[in-house]
Amino acid sequence: MAAAMRAGAARLGPRLCWKAAEAVLCPAGAAPACLVVPVRTKRKRCRVPEWARELSPEQKEQRLRSSGFILPEERVERSFYLASTAAIADPYVPPEGDARHSALSRPGLGQQLEQLKHSAASRLALRKIKDHDPNFSPKAFPEQALEIFIEAHNCLSNFNKQKLHSLVTERCYPELVRGNRYRTIRWSFLGSLQPPRVVQLRCHSLVSKGNLYGQVTVRMHSRQVLAIYDRFGRLMYGGEETPRDVLEYVVFERHLVNPYGTWRMHGKVVPAWAPPKGPIIKTVMIPGPALDPSQEHEAAK
Amino acid sequence: WLASSSLLPLSCIHTSTYLQKSAKWEKKNRIVYPPQLPGEPRRPAEVYHCRRDIKYSHEKMWYLATLIKGMSIDQALAQLEFSDKKGAKVIKEVLLEAQEMAVRNHNVEFKSNLHIAVSATGRGHYVKRIRYHGKGMFGIMKISRCHYFVKLVEGPPPPPEPPKTGFDQAKEYLQQLRSRTLVHTL
Hints:
The complex is a heterodimer of chains A (about 300) and B (about 190). Chain A is α+β, with helices and mostly antiparallel strands. Chain A has helices spanning about 5-10, 15-25, 55-65, 105-110, 120-130, 140-160, 160-165, 175; strands at about 185-205, 210-230, 235-240, 245-255, 265-270. In chain A, a hairpin with an 8-residue loop joins β4 and β5. Chain A is extended and about 95 Å long. The two termini of chain A are about 60 Å apart. Chain B is built from 6 helices and 5 strands, in the order ααβαααββββα. In chain B, α4 (about 75-80) packs antiparallel against α5. The interface of A and B includes residues 6, 13, 14, 234 and 236 of A. Chain B: This is Large ribosomal subunit protein uL22m.
């Protein structure tokens, strides 16, 4: 590994032969010259006399200004644009047992005939939305909302991120996309069991008073098929042959003040009485507490 | 070990390809297979992991890499824990990281159900330095680094090949004798 060079060393002398070795190892021409950028400025020391060092910061600044020292303005200006809100304002509380009864029974009919319960806040929000978007109507909107919903889920299956950004807000996008990069998703919409309808409207502003965002909650009862496959093509969740009946409360949002704003999917409201989701096919280990070698786990005792 | 030509803020004439490092092993974790049909046998999960520029010699690391080739992951971790070599500690960390990755990201169900399909070492960047001896003598020493690559596959380890018996060798010999023909004849 280390080869001693005796002949050359004897001739040149001790110090010089090390430098020769260094020259051999890192020759001057090898390292590119543009790596080193020397900055030749003399560092100026600020001359503050002894008696002036005890002053308060305002007085020091005054002295600096009077001496003619110009400080560069260090205001960092970085504007950002809020295209969507971060949460669902005033989430809708769906009535317990919604869509449990068949459509022909008495309670079922009662549920169907339930008109859009125009609470005061919803009516006010509707008026504000119509100010900015005169074509909005709570009767025609649910079909448009359903189209956006189906299109967004199709983009998710095809990984068409560009289009997905235009159909879904920035708050909802990570919820849809997280963990799915190396997975295959197959989703199809078989049909609606009940026509979608608008359930709640809300309008609120962020930062300044006139910056309005409108949120509309749409209730959808439909039949869907979902199957998620992992990186190796093995089924992780769901199944392609079994369609499921799904009742969802989807929130759509639009930046009303922006003339080019569109209605986009913002999130879902999951009611507290919703049945638990089905289990995944995999078994998961939940690690227990970290024990000493001398201790025994309480469950084993 | 990134390419030096891409790090410089100013333009540089020296853009040599030997300074760029290849990251093929890391990219192997990104391939996505299409969903399997219901009749196909279940495809075993594969996880690729590596560590670059370990301060060890690749010749010395080779002994440890061949030790654990083909073992189940628990057996490999046990062997490495009680090995006296410096590289054993590094390889053990790599195996534990790979196991964690497999369970978390690659949908492997049981962390013990993995075996080591490929375990290899490669030479890293060498750097030459001066080693000072007495009486003004010096030597040029090289600081060697190595890379370590491992591929974990789900499932029990494959059974070892049975050693070749004399009977098998005799059968092969007879087969060779019987398959002799005359060439370039009528």
